[in-house]
Amino acid sequence: MVARSLALFTIAAIAEIGGAWLVWQGLRGDRGWVWVVLGGLALAGYGLVATLQPGTEFGRVFAAYGGIFIVGSIAWGTVFEGFRPDRYDLLGAAVCLAGMAIIMYAPRT
């Protein structure tokens, strides 16, 4: 269950961050409306993938996804924008991942 959930979080992050990046590039990078539309489709895909999470509590799933989004955003910037995270970026991302794991996967009684 955890492996499937992490895979879904990863796919959702790629769709959301990639979609937002496409919109950004379309509007701010002057690449045109095709990029904006493709970004919108990717963002819709993100919404769909997020609903496939095994967790049933919307707030918990989306709160946990926040940690994935933060790490994914740093990774996306590194790969596609040449961003160089410093130790505080990495430390903050690690803290967020730890929080995500607690929120999503801690045993509940």
Summarize the structure.
The protein has 109 residues and is mainly α. The chain has helices spanning 2-28, 33-50, 58-81, 87-105.
Helix and strand arrangement:
Elements: H1 2-28, H2 33-50, H3 58-81, H4 87-105
Helix pairs in contact: 1-2, 1-3, 3-4
What can you see in these coordinates?
It is built from 4 helices and no strands. Helix content is 81%, strand content 0%. By secondary structure, it is mainly alpha-helical.
What fraction of residues sit in β-strands?
under 5%
Give the beta-strand count. 0
Which class best fits the helix and strand makeup? Answer: mainly alpha
Q: What does the average pLDDT come to? A: 94
What is the general shape? flat
What keyword list fits this structure?
4 helices, 109 residues, mainly alpha
